[in-house]
Amino acid sequence: MDEFALIRSLTADLPSNAQVIAGAGDDCAVLELGLPDRWVLFKTDAVVEGVHFTTSTPPEKIGHKALARCLSDIAAMAGTPVAALITLGLPREFDPGFIKAIYRGMKPLAERHAVAIVGGETTTNPDRLLISVSVIGTVEKTKCPRRSGAKSGDAIFVTGELGGSLARRHLEFEPRLREARWLAEHFAIHALMDISDGLAGDLRHILRASHVGAELLARAIPISRSARKPGAPGETTPASVKPPLLAALTDGEDFELLFTVASSDAVALLDAWKKKFPELRLSCIGKILAEPGLRLRESRGVKTLNAEGYIHFKQP
After folding, report:
1. What SS3 string covers 270-308?
2. Whole-number mean pLDDT of the chain?
C-alpha cells in the first residue's frame, strides 16, 4: 500500500463537525471558527532524518525546511500564517547545540512572515531525528482556492522553475505566500496547490478532485538549471540524475505554486505578474480538458503521461 492508498483508507470515514469547511484532501484543513470574513487554516507536516535531510545537512537548513514546508501549504490556500507548534522526536543521544541551531534556522523565516512559534512537544524517537510542525493561519472566505475548482478550458500555470530541487533548493526555498495572496486578490483562481511531490503527481491531485483531465506542453515546462545540468559538481544526488524534462515532472520538493485560471485571464495575468514579481518566472504550461487523464504534447505528438511524482511507501 503506497502513501495515497493509505491516506484514502484512513480518511474514508473520519469524524467531522459543523465547523469543518474542508478536511482531508486539500493542502490545509479549512475551519469555520466564527471570524466574520475569514476561515481558519490548520496544517501539520513532518521532516525525518534519512528521508527529508541527511546527517550532514546543516541544522539551520533543517529548521528552515521544516517550517517552510508547512508555510508552503498555507500559501497553497492563499492564506496568511499566524502561529506554529514544533514537535521534536529526538534520538536518545542528541546534541543540544544541534537542536538549538535547528530553531535558529526557523527564526528568520518565521520573522519574515510574522509567524509566532508558540510551543510544541518533545519526545524520544530512538532511531533518528523527526520534526513535526503544525501551523494555524487564516484566509478570506471569498478568496480560498481549493484543488477541486479546475474547469475545462482553464490555463495551467506554475511559478518558478521545476526539477533538480533535491540538489539544493529543497533546503532553501521561500514559501510563495505573498504571491499566492496576490493571485487570489487580483484574479479568479479556480484551483491552487503547491508542488511538493512533483508536477506530474501533484497535478493529478487537482485533476481527480476536479473530475477533469489535462494536457501539458513539454516545451513550456520551466526546467531548472540544476535539472538541465545533472552532472554539475555539488548539485547532483542520485534522485536528480534524470533527463531534464523527467526531473521537472517528477523530482518533487519544488514548492512552487501550481494553479488554474480561465484561459481568458491568462494574458492579463502574465502581464500583471511581470510587473508585480519581475524576479520570479511564471509559466503557462498547458490546459485543463473535460476528458479525464494526463497527456503530454511533444514535438512528435501527444502521449499519455505515465510519470509520477514522489510517493512514500511505493515499492520500486
Report:
1. HHHHHHHCCCCCEEEEEEEECCCEEEEEECCEEEECCCC
2. 92
Helix (H) or strand (E) run with residue 226 in it: helix 225-228
How does pLDDT run across 237-293, given as a tens digit for each residue?
A: 444 468 899 999 998 899 999 999 999 999 999 999 999 999 999 999 999 999 999
Range 3-140 classified under CATH 3.30.1330.10: yes
Residue with cell 512537544: 121
> Phi, psi (5° rounding) for residue 149?
-100, 0
Q: What CA–CA distance (Å, rounded) separates 145 from 259?
A: 9
Q: Domain 147-304: give its CATH architecture.
A: Alpha-Beta Complex (3.90)
For residue 219, report the phi and psi dihedrals to the nearest 5 degrees: -70, -10
Helix (H) or strand (E) holding 71: helix 59-75
Among 60, 45, 57, CA closest to 197: 45
Among candidate residues 221, 238, 205, 76, the one with its CA nearest the CA of residue 162:
221
Q: Can you tell me whether residue 181 is helix, strand or coil? A: helix
Q: How far is CA 245 from the centre of its chain?
A: 19
Q: Are 4 and 311 in contact (CB under 8 A)?
A: yes
Written as nine digits, the cell of 30 is 479549512
